[in-house]
Amino acid sequence: MLKRRRFASAVMAAAVQLTNITLAHQVLTQSGVVSGALEDGLSVYKGIPFAGPPLGDLRWRPPTHAATWTGTRKANAFAPACMQEGVSMPGEAPPAVSEDCLYLNVWAPAKSVPEHLPVIVWIYGGGYRNGSASMPLYWGDRLAHKGVIVVTIAYRLGPLGFLALPELTRESVHRSSGNYGLMDQIAALEWIQRNIAAFGGDPKRVTIAGQSSGAISVSVLMASPRAKGLFQRAIAESGGLFEPIQLAPNYLLANAERDGEKYAASLGASTLQELRRLPATELLGGGNAGGVTHPVIEPYVLPSSPYEAFAAGQQNDVPLLIGSNAEEARALTDVTNVKSATFNEDINRSFGALPPQIIAAYPHATDEEARQARLDLERDLRFGWDMWAWARLQARSGQHRVYYYSFGQRPAFPVGSVYEGWGASHFAELWYVFDHLNQAPWHWSKADRKLAEEISSYWVNFAKSGNPNGRGLPVWPAFTPADSKVLYLSDPVSVGGVANIKSLTVLDTVYTTVRGKAFLAP
């Protein structure tokens, strides 16, 4: 009898424990209950809708609220990525795609009591043409084990995310069009403000973070009045939108609308109604899709360029951690056939006619010099100058600190792989930021693993307090106008001045002249 009672008690205790575990992974959101999964001591929720499907008449409209549901919705499988062509990163497995794609994923420490943990919201890159919130490299497991909640969000891409048209502007109550992908990002941040506390997160300690076009999105969100109060820190890796608008006039609404009309005509669509009836695959594959794949300066989301917003001190002023990589262009540009004799002509074909002082800043007397000059020019023109300008703008006009890095570590990219020869290129820091060296079976050194531990700790510390410094880490000084200190993320971590300052200064001088007024003297 006693044995039976003991057995019954043990069964009851196990049932109670199992119930507690199950309940620990059920969260009540404003739309309904979701159930996640326990993965290595974390509560993981995949494919939670933060907005309604942008289908049919909702195509090219601001995102709507997610529909409510009854019962418990399983959040244990990633949703399809937004419609796209290709992949955002060489070597990435192409994701399943759908126009119904506005979902997010959450990695949280598995606790049974409210933790009020800081939150990192990851915005993927991919040139606004592709990218996925479920890409394994972006999974938040390793960072979550360090005491933060990680959320990866999706947003509309390509023409579905950024088409501007006069007809769209006329039907909008805001008298604007374009930037639907950016509106998705804002909708996700609003969802996080309403719901993240139920997952153990602190809505007053949200860090937006992104790489490449994800980092450009961070610069836009810091400049957007629509995003005010939705985040308290910002991290941007290798991307920003700070060049003179004179050099990118298609970003202005009227010009973006003109490009949108050309795009629609190329698809044979004469009305917005016809465009909305076209299959999403036709919108990607035909016409001049690349010409309508960028943010738009328009009255609702982005009434002024990020440069203008920061210069006027009107940005969403939060602590900022930014930087770029020492060899950005190696992952993006094939210089095998670059020759000294045709250097100028090749540059003109790729970028248009550049002022002679810019060309002169990158010596190219021999073919070997020309190959390096092409890499250096693209590094500075596409990434390095933006991050330097952004750091100076925030340091001068903002009330919060800037932490500026240069990533120089060369990962263990194998010979014969798609990554061969990349070095410290675009994308290279991501394995270290997410502490995901183990996702790639390469010959990582002890120095690589130490650096991944350090970099991921800097990012987590910044999300916790707005300051990346912490016990056991090399000191990271703030970047100031008077003392332009940069943290060099390589083995070993060190502090120095701004890299490539001579060529960056040439670009800066040209850009200042283009703007027609002086600001941020070198």
Question: Topology, pairings included?
Answer:
Blueprint lengths: L1 H23 L1 E3 L4 E3 L1 E3 L2 E8 L22 E3 L6 E2 L14 E2 L4 E7 L7 E7 L17 H4 L4 E5 L4 H5 L3 H6 L8 H16 L5 E11 L1 H11 L9 E5 L15 H14 L5 H6 L2 H6 L20 H6 L8 E6 L17 H9 L4 H5 L6 H31 L4 E6 L22 H4 L12 H20 L20 E4 L4 E3 L4 H15 L7
Parallel strand pairs: 2-5, 6-7, 9-10, 9-11, 11-12, 12-13, 13-14, 14-15
Antiparallel strand pairs: 1-2, 3-4, 4-8, 8-10, 15-16
Helix pairs in contact: 13-16
Characterise this structure.
With 522 residues, this protein is α/β, with parallel strands linked by helices. It has two domains: 39-62 and 78-85 and 98-317, Rossmann fold, CATH 3.40.50.1820; 319-522, Alpha/Beta hydrolase fold, catalytic domain (Rossmann fold, 3-Layer(aba) Sandwich). 35% of the residues lie in helices and 15% in strands. The chain is built from 16 helices and 16 strands. The chain has helices at residues 2-24, 141-144, 158-162, 166-171, 180-195, 213-223, 253-266, 272-277, 280-285, 306-311, 343-351, 356-360, 367-397, 430-433, 446-465, 501-515; strands at residues 26-28, 33-35, 37-39, 42-49, 72-74, 81-82, 97-98, 103-109, 117-123, 149-153, 201-211, 233-237, 320-325, 402-407, 486-489, 494-496. The chain has an eleven-stranded mixed β-sheet, sandwiched between helices. The protein has a three-stranded mixed β-sheet with strand order 1-2-5. Strands 6-7 form a two-stranded parallel sheet. A hairpin with a 4-residue loop joins strand 15 and strand 16 (494-496). Helix 13 (367-397) crosses helix 16 (501-515). The chain is globular.
